[in-house]
Design goal:
By secondary structure, this protein is of the alpha+beta class. It has five helices and 14 strands. Strand 12 and strand 13 form a beta hairpin. It comes from Algoriphagus halophilus.
Length: 268
């Protein structure tokens, strides 16, 4: 009997050791995961200003100094296509220091109407070292309401970490974004993170981005919130709560509450 009990103790110790090793393997660094999601959210929204400008606004531009990153601009009237080229070096006197390379291509419907549609495509494009691939579709719902959807976008970081995700978003602003104060966005992004886990980003309709901040290459929303949920398997999710807080001008604090209750500033 003693030998049997001793065998059970050894078996229990071995199982406990294996369980500890497994826990270490599946342990997630919450701040790292939060920063990855914040980078994804920023990469999705950094090109919104380009996307929400109308063809007529691009056609009437005499300078690109008010476009984030000061790209080279080509407008083709016959096909209603716009090319934004970030590869040539140009003097750009903007406060923000986010970097882009490659091209963004916008293709507008041949007829302008309240239900006009257009698409934004990334052409060998990267933002702050992360490559972005895919096509985003936009459609006017009314004079100041725009619907966006895409399926999917792929973002790959410099460390070769890839997020693949889809989205359904609504944007509300003025009839011409360049003259408007800004726009409010709300909707949902969902996909798979580098660890193969499903994630979901809920954006209440209070995410405000200012045109004047975009024009200075300042790309963080000045108000709003986001709720990030990530699957941990077996119908279990963890949740992050993000809040944007305007400090002054276009300087914003992006604070997130981690699933364990800690608070983290994502853009120190």
């Amino acid at each position: 009997m003693k030998r049997f009990n001793f065998f059970l103790i050894l078996l229990s110790m071995a199982f406990g050791s294996c369980q500890e090793d497994a826990d270490k393997v599946i342990h997630t660094d919450l701040p790292t995961e939060a920063n990855q999601l914040f980078d994804l959210s920023t990469a999705w929204s950094e090109s919104l200003y380009f996307a929400l400008l109308s063809f007529d606004e691009y056609q009437g531009m005499d300078t690109t100094n008010t476009l984030p990153g000061c790209p080279e601009l080509l407008v083709e009237e016959d096909t209603r296509k716009v090319w934004l080229n970030f590869d040539p070096e140009s003097e750009c006197q903007q406060a923000g220091n986010d970097k882009r390379s490659g091209k963004i291509v916008l293709e507008y419907a041949l007829s302008e109407s309240n239900s006009a549609s257009w698409a934004l495509e990334y052409d060998d494009y990267s933002f702050n070292g992360s490559s972005i691939r895919g096509i985003r579709n936009f459609k006017k719902e009314s004079s100041n309401q725009i619907i966006e959807n895409f399926n999917p976008l792929t973002i790959t970081s410099e460390k070769k970490l890839t997020h693949v995700f889809s989205g359904d978003i609504k944007h509300s602003g003025g009839s011409t974004i360049s003259d408007a104060i800004g726009f409010i966005s709300g909707g949902n992004l969902h996909g798979v993170n580098p660890a193969g886990r499903d994630f979901n980003i809920e954006i209440p309709f209070d995410r405000l981005m200012l045109s004047s901040c975009f024009q200075e290459n300042k790309l963080v929303p000045v108000a709003g919130s986001e709720v990030w949920s990530i699957s941990r398997g077996a119908s279990k999710n963890v949740t992050y709560q993000l809040q944007y807080e305007l400090l002054d001008s276009c300087n914003v604090a992006a604070n997130v509450i981690l699933p364990d209750g800690r608070s983290l500033l994502l853009n120190p």
